[in-house]
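Hi P.,

Sorry for the delay on this. The queue was packed all week, but I finally got your sequence through. Input first:
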Amino acid sequence: MSERMTNLFMEMVTIDSESGNEEAMMQFLEDYFSKTFQAEIFRDSYGNFIAKLPAKNSEQREPIMLSCHADTVKPGVGIEPQLVDGVISSKGDTILGADDKAGIAEVIEALHRAESFPPIEFVVSREEEVGLTGVKNLDYSKLRSKIGFLMDGDVLDSIVIGGPTYIAIDVEITGRGAHAGMEPEKGISAIQAAARAITRLRLGRLDKDTTANIGTINGGIVRNGVPEKTCFAAECRSLNHQKALDLAKGMKSIIISEVSQLGAKAEVKINVLCEAVSISENSPVVKISKKAIQAVGLDPKSIFITGFTDASIYNNKGIQTAVLGIGAQNEHSTDEKIAVADMEKAVDILLEILKSLA
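Then the structure:
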């Protein structure tokens, strides 16, 4: 058990860094990497963090990218971590932040312990959890890496080699306001219109590649008013890009049609946040990852997920990137936890990768 890694991780999760509020975490990384590794530090115009480390006991000149993200989901303010029987969790009503600070701690520990590695470009993005915004705005002119390893998966034996097209669908419905008791017949309920549309949509897992969801809904001002405005946030995603586009178009058509049946109007905005991507089982980055996972006694599996990660953008930008597991469990919930033994195993996998590329 690495006391250094455990202590570092538990310190980092106490630094508030919900999406959009990552500056304190980025400053911590700047200080740590400049003092501990004498790394060359860059912050791009969007606030993403890049640390460049020279090769160690290696003649390799081509760098590799290691990457994580600094932000957490909510509730992520005032996290108090606790270590009980080798498992780290949150004491209170917050997430833990293992997603993705465990990944950061594991990368740092691997850099401490590695006897050799090629030149490293360590990238920590902002606002991953709210649509990969940081990595989309990353200054790629600062990077030379052609392959990368993103520490942001969950289970340790899986390599994510494909992710979905992810589409945000924002809906604003306008009805007509009226007094709910005195003259309700003069009103058109935007909430009722929204409900009518939502019940007509196919939601959940539509097939093995495709999902759709309504995440939030907000409407009305007072109990005794027929609500004029209602908004809801929907999404769809698929490992097949065209299928995702067709699904979003179909959802928009249903919403507009159903809302109009009650005399209301719907404004539907569709935003493609990332495009489906996959890398070959035979690509160098996957072969290297599989060999490293096998070396620590696990049976590697290549998988596709309908969740999205920064790797979707890296791969579309020409940096062939595999997603590796960090060992976190129950991410995005107040039950999030991680075993120190699993963090150690993730470090061992990274050490095998660094050694093979040195």
